Amino acid sequence: MKVEKLLSIFWLKTANKRQPVPKPGCLLLSGSDMIVLSSETNFDYSLSVFHHFNLLEIRKVQISLAGQHVRLIGCTEDTVLAVFTHSKELTQEFCRALLKTLSPEKFFEGNEDHPLLSGDLMVLSLDWTSSVPDIVLDSGLHVTSRFKRVLADLLYIVHGNMEGPGKPSLANVFPLLYTSVKVVNSTRVHQDAIFQFLLTDTHVALLREDGVFHPVPRGTSLVPSQPQFQGLELRRRSDIRCVLVRQKDNWLVVEISFTTHKVQAQEKNVISSHGSAEVPSVSDHGSKCDSWKLSFGCTSEAVTLINHLCT
């Protein structure tokens, strides 16, 4: 494969329809191509081409909730590459690099100030009143978001798994924070322990969001092979006993201890209005410990969590 001069290089995780489990890799961006290199296994040091896009084949760039991943859709809806940044800032950096490569004139005419490229993706995606327009290039490429659609599915599932007399109505579930965290005390051996963390005014939750198959594009033959949200672990904020904060290897670790031990519950499935998500109510790691040790890659988000929990 002949590659033009490289313009950008990203080290992150990617997934596609053939390999839906996110894998570490190197994403190379040239003037005409996007190439993802990855090893076949965790113990294989040789690299191969995991995914290849001719840039002109990319029709949609979908930014996920809070900018935690980006989904690239090709000329056919089945051609999907999910790029997991786990960072709203890195998501914007990736999208800016892609747009500068595809249409430098259009980008410098003012698109660099577009909310999707310069705004706070956390605030935009959790605000029901926000209205974020798409970015449309002359080539037909759309940079878009599915904030409200994904947020509605997420809150529907979280609400369906809430228990107890203090359960709020669905309309009164207020999301305050949604980001990626590393669960330090996870018992899942040989698995990546990166989860999405949700904070509402009444609950905290850990889960995994699928970046390849959801939300399902209309009129597509893409058949989801896994739920939109998986491994949901939900706890009431009123059950939080204490919060410990410490610095470890340039990461801020927040340990949330609960007053009661979470016993293994019966699996409960909740299907969203789009029929795209079934979630076990208790995950493996949550049933075996009464505290969460969460490593945050962004200090400001950890501070936001601490401030909310302390008020």
Structure notes:
The chain starts with 5 loop residues before the first strand and ends with a helix. It has helices at 88-102, 104-107, 115-118, 121-126, 147-160, 299-310; strands at 6-16, 23-30, 33-38, 48-54, 60-63, 69-73, 80-84, 135-136, 142-145, 175-183, 194-200, 203-209, 229-236, 240-248, 251-258, 291-296. β8 (135-136) and β9 (142-145) form a beta hairpin. It has 6 helices and 16 strands. The strands form 2 sheets. The chain has a 9-stranded mixed β-sheet, with helices on one face. It has 2 domains: 6-145, Pleckstrin-homology domain (PH domain)/Phosphotyrosine-binding domain (PTB) (PH-domain like); 149-310, Pleckstrin-homology domain (PH domain)/Phosphotyrosine-binding domain (PTB) (PH-domain like, Roll). Residues 263-288 have low confidence and may be disordered. It is α+β, with helices and mostly antiparallel strands. The radius of gyration is 20 Å and the shape is globular. The longest helix has 15 residues, at 88-102.
Described by the principal axes of the CA atoms, the overall outline is globular
Determine the structural class based on helices, strands and strand pairing: alpha+beta
Count of domain modules? 2
User: What is the architecture of the largest domain at the second tier of CATH?
Assistant: Roll
Computed over alpha carbons, the radius of gyration is 20 Å
Q: Tell me the number of helical segments per DSSP (H or I, 4 or more residues long).
A: 6
SSE pattern: EEEEEEEHHHHEEHEEEEEEEH
Q: Termini, distance in Å?
A: 56 Å
> How many β strands by DSSP?
16
Here the CATH topology of the largest domain equals PH-domain like
Task: Give the integer mean of the pLDDT values.
Answer: 84
In CATH terms, the superfamily of the largest domain is Pleckstrin-homology domain (PH domain)/Phosphotyrosine-binding domain (PTB)
CATH class descriptor of the largest domain: Mainly Beta
The residue fraction in helices comes out at 10-25%
**Oligomeric composition of the shown chains:** single chain
